[in-house]
Amino acid sequence: MAQQVRGVIATAQGAPVEVQTVIVPDPGPGDAVVTVQACGVCHTDLHYRDGGINDDFPFLLGHEAAGIVEAVGDGVTNVAVGDYVVLAWRAPCGTCRACRRGRPWYCFDSRNATRPMTLLDGTPLAPALGIGAFIEKTLVSAAQCVTVDRRADPAAAGLIGCGVMAGWGAVANTGGVQRGDTVAVIGCGGVGNAAIASAAFAGARSVIAVDVDPRKLDWARHFGATDTIDARSEDVVERVRELTDDFGADLVVEAVGRPETYEQAFLARDLAGTVVLVGVPTPELTVTLPMIEIFGRGGALKSSWYGDCLPTRDFPILIDLYLRGRFDLDALISERVGIDDVEEAFARMQRGEVLRSVVVLQPAAV
Ligand SMILES: NC(=O)c1ccc[n+]([C@@H]2O[C@H](COP(=O)([O-])OP(=O)(O)OC[C@H]3O[C@@H](n4cnc5c(N)ncnc54)[C@H](O)[C@@H]3O)[C@@H](O)[C@H]2O)c1
Ligand SMILES: [Zn+2]
Ligand SMILES: [Zn+2]
User: Fold this and answer.
1) Which residues pair with 3 in a beta bridge?
2) Long-range contacts for 321-325 (Cβ within 8 Å, ≥24 apart)?
3) Which domain holds residue 186?
4) CA-based torsion, 133, 139, 140, 146: positive or negative
5) Disulfide check for 210: which of 85, 229, 286, 305 has CB 3.0–4.6 Å away?
6) If you average pLDDT over residues 111-126, what whole number do you get?
């Protein structure tokens, strides 16, 4: 039986989000209905609300979630009813050209639910990143459900489903960090701090945190930053050079998504260094770079989607690090809020007051 639950909808570009009734259909073949327990507020949700991703309004926002599998459709074998899962926005298909070449972390045909959730009038919803989890129950492909250790708090575990994995993997996977590297991270929100934790865990010699907000720099120290740069008052490129014996960093992660910070990342790296762009730019943005520097410095300019992760491989590892006290996911949770508070959480994100607000869902009334 299709169910009616409350979900957070972005109706039009820039308009405040609204909690509306959503119809969640029964799971189709290969699908799963998941009771959402918690879902983090990622900057990408705000990009969706502001029309920065695409124009497929109305969106069902939320995509950093953990919950319990409530029902599965025909043919589902990877999860069962009652499993505790983190939702992934990458579920490799196994058959696209990337998957066939053994690079499933680039999958170009990631699995999603086979039928849409809708508003009461039947309008189909576009779920953020193919998930849509600011909602009491959501419909996803069962392949998007990654079973994890039940002892992990859903508010912390859910964060692995996007921002944490994106930041951690940008350093560990895309950036290929090596023990002894120098690493700089520009933008120390939820994503940037996960990148910092990843660099520290991998044995980077120095981990340089860059932000325009001193609160973010304090948090960055907690996650393992060895040095901090306040981009409002200091020259970022100069300071990164000073902190790396005048060479620049081996790896610079850009976790803001702006031309000026991308340029800083480009110029703050050492010869043969790597830049990894994680921040999501809006479509109108452009960068101008001296071509001779692109050539002359060598190295690599990369982008990272979801930290080039494989959710079934990487989520349980991060949960294990969390449960063993080696990755303080709890410190990323600045506040726990209700489903009606997403708009206010966006405002706090924009004011820089939070690393992550996490929407904690109450069990739906039966
Ligand atoms: N590539 C991916 O797979 C992926 C996944 C998740 C999020 N993202 C993107 O990563 C970015 C960061 O996400 P978040 O959730 O951490 O956002 P956030 O808002 O929590 O953090 C952004 C940080 O950048 C800082 N900042 C802003 N302007 C700056 C400047 N000029 N110099 C230095 N720092 C500056 C802010 O103070 C803030 O601390 C967003 O663009 C988001 O859409 C990408
Ligand atoms: Zn594929
Ligand atoms: Zn996200």
Assistant:
1) 24
2) 321/201, 322/152, 322/156, 322/157, 323/149, 323/151, 323/152
3) 168-304
4) positive
5) 229
6) 98
Atom of ligand 1 nearest to the CA of 190: 16
pLDDT value of residue 363: 58
Q: What is the count of structural domains for the chain? A: 2
Task: Determine whether the shortest distance from the Cβ of 231 to ligand 1 is under 6 A.
Answer: yes
Q: Quick one: 145 and 27 in the same domain? A: yes
Quote the pTM value: 0.96
| CATH code for the domain of 34 | 3.90.180.10
> pLDDT, tens digit, for every residue of 239-272?
999 999 999 999 999 999 999 999 999 999 999 9
* For the CA of 62, the nearest ligand: 3
Residue 142 CA, ligand 1 centroid: distance in Å:
29
Please indicate, yes or no, if residue 218 is contained in any of the structural domains: yes
Tell me: do 17 and 70 sit in the same domain: yes
Instruction: Decide whether any atom of ligand 1 lies within 6 Å of the 305 Cβ.
Output: yes
